Amino acid sequence: MDKPEMIFFDYGHTLCYEPVQDYPAGWAEVMRHAVRNPQGVTAASLAELMTDIYSRVWGSMRPHELETDGFKLDAEIYESLGLDFDVSLEELEYLRWRATEPIYPMEGVEAFLELCAGLGIRTAVISNLSYSGASLRRRIAETLPSNRFEFILASSDGAFRKPSEWIFRRALSRAGTDAGKCWFIGDDVRCDIEGAARTGIWPVWYRSPLRCTYKPAAKAPPECPHTVAASWDELGGMLRGLI
To answer: By the 8 A CB rule, do 199 and 169 touch?
Structure first.
């Protein structure tokens, strides 16, 4: 394993911890901003409808490594229901996400990002996400205000999601670098580790002791060469050892 020119990071359960996913609270926040509601939609009925729609969309698309543009999906349903709001749809998405789940920096990640900056290692984020990239960039900026990410790429900004090679190739093209000069650090065996490996990026499996609240623990290790670390301090030690 060589010192990388650039490190790409996963977002959820890698850079940031999301202890709660309260989707009904998110849809309730949406309805708090409704100023026109001709069909008498309630927060509970909207939550039930959107849970069903998202489940069916994800079930159809994600097995094919395709992503949902959640922002457009939400906008289409709101318009179909005759809903208008007292804030922009961009702000509404952000407020819904904040109400759905708080996010916090993983312990030690800020020091690791500072180490990368001090060593001249470039950084960026590649995240599987149905929320818009704009909302993701806003939440990361609030949670990790000292970050120096060159860009933050959400799968919702395009058509493909990890482990598709196309989202990794898009990030490499945007960065103007070669896969062999990069690391990808993430927690998901299939999407992050095996996906990065099949694109030629060196994968680092971040195995936080914190339980992930929105997906089960991996049943088997990655089927590719990789590095494993259980903390950002451990990863920092590895990085210093390559200098």
So the answer is: yes
Of the CA atoms within 13 Å of residue 72, those in its CB half-sphere come to 8
Residue 149: φ, ψ to 5°: -60, 130
Tokens of 217: 């623990």
β-bridge partners, 12: 16
List, in order, residues 6 or more apart from 5 with CB less than 8 Å away: 121, 122, 177, 181, 182
d(CA 186, CA 204): 7
Average pLDDT for residues 46-56, to the nearest whole number?
A: 97
Contacts of 145 (CB under 8 A, 6+ apart): none
Please give the single-letter amino acid code of residue 170. Answer: R
Handedness of CA 72, 77, 79, 83 (dihedral sign): negative
For the segment 113-154, what is each residue's pLDDT rounded down to a tens digit?
Answer: 999 999 999 999 999 999 999 999 999 999 999 999 999 999
How many CB atoms sit inside 10 A of residue 57's CB? 17
CA 67 – CA 53 distance, rounded (Å): 14
| Distance in Å from the first CA to the final CA of the chain | 12
